[in-house]
Backbone:
């Protein structure tokens, strides 16, 4: 995994605690991991719009990344256009304006999470407004007091498809119960949706293991964009192959690790303190510095690496610092 120097610095500085600081002015946007972070430059979701309403109209926790808010608005419009005449999509919490912990959530701290309530119908198929967080069983039915409601699978799939197909975001997770995932995927396959889209949905639709089963809503999380990773956005789930890759370094992994081991910052385009053009020349140059063993000396000393650098060897692959194992808490309630 290759990291831009800015992203590497952000990861080293933040660890699992993420607060913008004057010491790191480059950190902005979604900063940190979803369960331990903050955000800057958020956009508030309107109280209502074409095809959607907020579940808590006056709540202060409807701020998110601008691309997420715009994608939600587009997705609601798409569902309304494809399935006219139904009740609006009801949207639960996003994040606080500046991020951080909000009530009833472990995550939702960096503007990348949102709760999507169900589209529902009567048992005979008439659309009805959702009464709130309603638990739906494996048969697609929900009991509300003395009545039964049914999951509107065509509209729920249309919402999932619109979000997965949105070019401005990359969906990292759609936390939902396994029975509802099965209903959605079965419908998509019967409808003849493209294999790639169904595979994408199967990958990100996931029942979390460390929280409620999410049978009363879908919890969506978007991934860090490549530019956001450089500005402090971290983790929250796997780097799926269908998401944009992280920014690439011009330096090779070996050259970057050699620079780190030598205590030197990576050279910039504007100011380079060495004429070294490649990792091989850099290794050769460092071998002849005082205090470094030559390849032969390193061999007699029992080192496999040609450089006598304790702990970190030039051939070692860098650890993926943007998603430390201790930070990998992906779900919430």
Residues:
């Amino acid at each position: 995994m290759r990291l831009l120097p800015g992203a590497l610095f952000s990861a080293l500085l933040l660890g699992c605690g993420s607060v913008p600081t004057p010491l790191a002015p480059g950190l902005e946007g979604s900063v940190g991991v979803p369960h331990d972070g903050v955000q800057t430059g958020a956009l508030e979701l309107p109280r209502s719009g074409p095809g959607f309403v907020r579940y808590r109209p006056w709540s202060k926790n409807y701020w998110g990344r601008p691309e997420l808010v715009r994608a939600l608005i587009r997705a609601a419009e798409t569902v309304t256009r494809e399935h006219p005449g139904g009740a609006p999509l009801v949207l639960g919490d996003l994040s606080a304006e500046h991020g951080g912990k909000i009530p009833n959530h472990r995550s939702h701290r960096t503007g990348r999470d949102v709760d999507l309530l169900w589209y529902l119908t009567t048992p005979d198929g008439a659309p009805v407004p959702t009464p709130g967080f309603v638990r739906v069983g494996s048969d697609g039915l929900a009991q509300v007091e003395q009545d039964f409601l049914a999951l509107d699978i065509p509209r729920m799939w249309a919402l999932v498809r619109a979000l997965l197909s949105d070019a401005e975001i990359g969906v990292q997770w759609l936390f939902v119960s396994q029975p509802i995932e099965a209903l959605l995927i079965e419908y998509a396959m019967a409808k003849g949706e493209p294999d790639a889209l169904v595979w994408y949905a199967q990958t990100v639709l996931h029942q979390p293991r460390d929280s409620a089963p999410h049978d009363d809503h879908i919890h969506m999380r978007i991934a860090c964009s490549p530019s956001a990773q450089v500005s402090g956005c971290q983790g929250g789930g796997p780097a799926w192959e269908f998401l944009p890759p992280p920014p690439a370094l011009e330096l090779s992994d070996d050259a970057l690790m050699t620079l780190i081991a030598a205590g030197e910052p990576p050279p910039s385009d504007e100011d380079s303190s060495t004429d070294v053009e490649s990792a091989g020349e850099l290794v050769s140059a460092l071998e002849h510095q005082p205090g470094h063993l030559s390849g032969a000396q390193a061999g007699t000393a029992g080192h496999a690496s040609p450089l006598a650098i304790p702990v970190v060897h030039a051939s070692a692959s860098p650890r993926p610092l943007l998603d430390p194992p201790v930070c990998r808490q992906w779900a919430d309630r």
In short: The longest strand covers residues 147-151. The chain has one domain: 5-246. The radius of gyration is 24 Å. The CA atoms of residues 83 and 316 lie 54 Å apart.
